């Protein structure tokens, strides 16, 4: 009597039923799962491919293909003159039959170095994909010269420069380093040569490499408060203690920094346009910070993230240009002036640090994409970069004006926004009685993307506010966003009153 087509030659192996997978893959998956969860034990013999094929009414070649794949991956052992057997040494306890995902267990045990890195926050949560008013830090992607960029890229590919397709210099594409050095010298008063310029994958990588090169776990570093979350994350990820230093109308305060912790080894500052307040660091404080670095042999990271966008007068001279002792490390990025997706930035390192930084870059990710660097170099040297910056300054000034005017009309008594002479964002200070975190959450529900000023603080002191980016939003979107923001602020005002009432009643 012939066997039923549903008879089981391998206990637990189920092949009947509908499945989009080919039969050899169903056999492979089924036997693999039985081995992993221990229902097929090490050394256990399987039926021959011929008998299994006959029992299931399928081609023997199908079974052979599955067995061969399982043997190649070490699940089965096949020997001439012996049965096909489960490979020795395998233990059960893996995912159950049919599972395509690993079990969710306890949290992984990170190393002492890895635990703070896994907990670091580089930026506040934001929607992925299409931007909305008023996300900060995003340039006018709608005004980027894509057609020109495509022509420059196509021209580079047509040249068939094989050196750009091979492994490159960890320091970066030499013509780009030369172009960056020339631009910074003329436009930002940075004193450097191309050998000091290292091309990196954005300013965040720059901060990470610098901190790991110069500081040990347990060291202290001064950081602006409120300040850039990515800098704080780089310190945290390296096991460095971030010491918050207050920021006022004159920017970072070195005297307050010394009072907070006199043994710091590094200071992170954004002197030309403090993030997020927009304050400009005074000359007196710049000189005081440089004097500290000279005395203490400390280091200063100058993050010039959007110094190009100054609407009145020329861009401010860099702090690095005042440094006679080689203590300032200048960081810049193409994310704000070109495209965030390029992931290109640069570091101007003091001469004695450059070689070490280049080696650290090589360890991190070898080098940045050669073709992208070459296109950026062409964009700069052919004059397109300077023209693009001029257009963006005009556009951003116009969009900031639209935001300020709309806020004066619709947000009076709720949010105070003053015009700024520079940048891609402004801070609107919330009226008393409005919790800025509640306001940011309410704005998100209204389809508006903004960040609470208090989210950038390490301490509780200071007024509440909202960080509003305007560079990426067209005028109509800005005006619509302000109207939505009004509804959010009214909701937040009511929620804040309710919370205070609850707290008093307890």
Word description of this protein:
It is a single chain. This protein has 506 residues and is an alpha/beta fold. It has 3 domains: 23-86, Winged helix-like DNA-binding domain superfamily/Winged helix DNA-binding domain (Arc Repressor Mutant, subunit A); 144-382, Type I PLP-dependent aspartate aminotransferase-like (Major domain) (Aspartate Aminotransferase, domain 2), CATH 3.40.640.10; 387-505, Aspartate Aminotransferase, domain 1 (Alpha-Beta Complex), CATH 3.90.1150. The protein has helices at residues 23-36, 49-56, 60-72, 114-119, 146-158, 162-165, 174-187, 202-214, 229-237, 254-260, 283-296, 351-365, 370-381, 384-410, 436-445, 475-505; strands at residues 76-77, 85-86, 197-200, 220-225, 241-248, 251-252, 266-269, 299-303, 328-333, 345-348, 415-417, 425-430, 451-452, 465-469. The strands form 3 sheets. An 8-stranded mixed beta sheet has the order 3-10-9-8-7-4-5-6, with helices on both faces. The chain has a 4-stranded antiparallel beta sheet with strand order 11-12-14-13, covered by helices on one side. Strands 1-2 form a two-stranded antiparallel ribbon. The protein starts with 22 loop residues before the first helix and ends with a helix. Residues 1-8 and 94-100 have low confidence and may be disordered.
Set out the fold topology.
Blueprint: H1 23-36, H2 49-56, H3 60-72, E1 76-77, E2 85-86, H4 114-119, H5 146-158, H6 162-165, H7 174-187, E3 197-200, H8 202-214, E4 220-225, H9 229-237, E5 241-248, E6 251-252, H10 254-260, E7 266-269, H11 283-296, E8 299-303, E9 328-333, E10 345-348, H12 351-365, H13 370-381, H14 384-410, E11 415-417, E12 425-430, H15 436-445, E13 451-452, E14 465-469, H16 475-505
Parallel strand pairs: 4-5, 4-7, 7-8, 8-9
Antiparallel strand pairs: 1-2, 3-10, 5-6, 9-10, 11-12, 12-14, 13-14
